[in-house]
Amino acid sequence: MHSLWHTLRRILLALLLGGLLLLALAQPAIASIHTYREQPGQTTYRSRQSLRDQTGMAWQATVFKRYSDGTLQGTYLRLVGFPGQGFTDTQRDLVIETGTTARWTAPRQLDAQTQTLPEGVGQYRVDALLSELPGSMPLTLQVPLRGGGTARLVAAPYVVDEWLQLYRMAEDGASPRQA
User: Fold this and answer.
1) DSSP H or E stretch at residue 37
2) d(Cα 164, Cα 15) in Å, to the nearest integer?
3) Which helix or strand (DSSP H or E) is residue 13 part of?
4) How far apart, in whole angstroms, are the C-alpha atoms of residue 128 and residue 105?
5) Residues of 122-141 as b/e, b for ≥16 C-beta within 10 angstroms?
6) What 8-state DSSP symbol labels residue 9?
7) In the chain, where are the structural domains located?
8) Measuring CA to CA, which of 4, 48, 70, 77 is 20 to 30 A from 161?
9) CA 137 to CA 12: how far, in whole Å?
C-alpha cells in the first residue's frame, strides 16, 4: 500500500510540474491584424475572427478601419453567417453587451467604399463601442436575424483585445504612444 501511495504521489507531482512547464513556455497570442494598401492614399487594417452563436453555428467577424487620404473613414464590424443559415436583418441594429454592466447599440452602416453587401451579411459602425470599452472583456453580440430571431455570439477577451488594438492604431500602423 505504501508503494502504491508513493507511486501515485510521484505521478501527480510529474503531471503538476509538466503542466507548470507548459504554462511557462506558452507563447502569448499574436494579434492577426492585417494591413492592406488598397490604392495610393488608402489603407485598411483588418482583424478577422471566427465566432460561434448559441446553436454552434460559425460566424465570420471582421473588424476593419480604413484611412483615405489621411482621414479615418470609420471602424466597422462585418458579420457573415454560415452560407444559407445566418441571415442578418437589414432593418435592425446590433446590440453588444458586457454581461450585466454595459450595453451598446451599433448602427447598421456601410463604409464609403461598399455600395451593397451580399444577402445575409451585416455591417455595423463600432467606433463608439470601441472608444468607450474600458478594456478586454468578453462581449455578447446580439445579431438581429431575418424573421425576428437573434443570434448570440460571444467574443472572448483575446478577440476584443485585438479589436481594441486595431481601433487604437494610427494611420501608419503604429499603436498610439502611451503617456
Assistant:
1) strand 33-39
2) 37
3) helix 2-25
4) 9
5) bbbbbeebbeebeebeebeb
6) H
7) 34-168
8) 70
9) 34
Cα-to-chain-centroid distance, residue 158: 8
Q: How many CA atoms lie within 13 A of 152 on its CB side?
A: 8
Where b means 16+ CB within 10 Å and e means fewer, 73-84 reads bebbbbbbbeee
Output the pTM of the full model.
0.77
Q: What pLDDT digit, counting tens, does each position of 6-18 carry? A: 676 777 655 544 4
User: DSSP 3-state helix, strand, coil percentages of the chain (rounded to 5)?
Assistant: 25, 40, 40
List the grid coordinates of 17: 510540474
- Please say whether the beta carbons of 27 and 38 come within 8 A: no
Closest CA to 106 of 96, 91, 121, 116: 96
pLDDT digits (tens, 9 = 90+) for 119-144: 889 999 999 999 999 889 999 999 99
* 31-36 long-range Cβ contacts below 8 angstroms, 24+ apart: 31/161, 31/162, 31/165, 32/162, 33/162, 33/165, 33/166, 33/169, 35/173
